[in-house]
Design goal:
The structure holds two protein chains of two kinds. By secondary structure, chain A is mainly alpha-helical. Helices cover about 70% and strands about 0% of the residues of chain A. Chain A is built from nine helices and no strands. Chain A has helices spanning about 5-15, 20-30, 35-50, 65-70, 90-110, 135, 140-165, 170-195, 200-225. In chain A, helix 1 (about 5-15) crosses helix 2 (about 20-30), helix 2 (about 20-30) packs across helix 3 and helix 5 packs parallel to helix 9 (about 200-225). The longest helix of chain A is centred in the C-terminal third of the chain and has 27 residues, at about 170-195. Chain B has helices spanning about 1-5, 10-30, 35-50, 60-85, 95, 110-115, 120-130, 135-145, 150-165. Helix content of chain B is about 75%, strand content about 0%. By secondary structure, chain B is mainly alpha-helical. Classes of the chains: A mainly alpha, B mainly alpha. At the A-B interface, helix 1, helix 3, helix 4 and helix 8 of A face helix 2, helix 3, helix 7 and helix 9 of B.
Amino acid sequence: MTCEEVRDRLDEYVDGDLTEAEFQEIELHLDGCAPCRAEERQLRALIAQAAALPEEIQPAADLWPDLAARLRGPEGLRLVPRTGLARWMGPMSVAAAAAVVVALSAALWTRGFVPAGAPGATTGVARPVALGASSELLDPERLLDSEREYARATADLMAAIEAQKESLAPETRAVLDANLKTIDDALAQVRAALIKDPGNSQLAHLLTSTHQKKVDALKRVVRLNRT
Amino acid sequence: MARAQAGDLEAFEVLYRANLGRVYALCYRMAGDASLAEELAQDVFVRAWQRLGSFRGESAFSSWLHPLTVNVALSERRSRRRRTSRVMSTDDPAAFERPESPKTGPEAAVDIDRALETLPPGARSVFVLHDVEGYKHEEIAKMTGVATGTSKAQLHRARRLLREALDR
């Protein structure tokens, strides 16, 4: 075996990944070749150094404040798919929460918001990804993506409303603020319920549909004010 | 643990503080960059929080957290590679093999963690997983989605580059 061939196989030699015959062949070469033996020792020293690296390193900055803020937001949702009935929120409670959202929608409608299909300029806000099957809703990544999309859409619409606030009647603004607070409270309740019962597909549906209702309501305000 | 699983953020902070050092060390070595490692460590704990319900206590929390950390670090590398491939058109694999310039002065020669920063990402990940964390090539191949032979080649390259960096 040449020195080059031996050095190409030194990693496998020190890692014990060679057959007995290959191992013996390299051993024989190393016994008679000082430069290759030195190479082997250097390699073993590096591996020993790597294995002895400290298990812990502390970051320069305290990460907790930012992390805690993320956990209090949409990313803090716990969505571990599971089977079985809801532990925390029974079907009756889900129905009650759903009724709150339906009532909210009705309240928004009767307080003078124009229907979603009314003529007027589009808002330019991208519609968040709609989630269909319950299996999709229970995919944590998809649901979190959806929450983020809704948050983005809501922020865009709020910015559009802020830009129009000169032309928005004070009473309309007051009604809007009151309704947004009710929807936000409902969202917080559904989110809290989901944290306690991550596998509940009804709650996941309720969360996205409540978000959608908020987005729809904001769109109506923007359209109403533009027409 | 039960309190953290029930949604108590203060209880989770205790778990976070007890495990941050190990999580950050692995992220830092895999990423080769301190500020990216801070982002990755945060991502690890966000995922841990989201999945805490699946922790059954059959192993230590730190053992449960370890593969999660590896996955987060590898996912970041995969997405970075996708972003990089969109803006780099070279077909010369050697261009990706060349180590970056050492980021610090003479101490890089004696500091293996600093030397790790100079490795190309693929070689660095395999070195950290194999020589620091003790995974086998077959396990690394499965985790990273490469062939076992590629993992061995990356390890060989990493060790060679590291010895060169440490000799400087």
